[in-house]
Amino acid sequence: MAYNISGNQDGLNGxxxxxxxxxxxxxxxxxxxxxxxxxxxxxxxxxxxxxxxYVRANPDITTCNNVNKS
Length: 70
What we know:
By secondary structure, the protein is of the alpha+beta class. Helix content is about 15%, strand content about 30%. The chain has one helix at about 30-35; strands at about 5, 20, 25-30, 45-50, 50-55. A hairpin with a 2-residue loop joins strand 4 and strand 5 (about 50-55).
């Protein structure tokens, strides 16, 4: 279970093709989407853009745990 997942913004137009999970390393979008949908990362959810699923942090009052920190 990961609390802080970072998107690498390494896909087309800055979309996340891979993500980094601290202590685990780089994970593909497909793998992480599957894990989130199985409930392995309860603080995250998936959303679909143009037919592709992506991972995002569930909303809360902090910004330090967002997938794409700015």
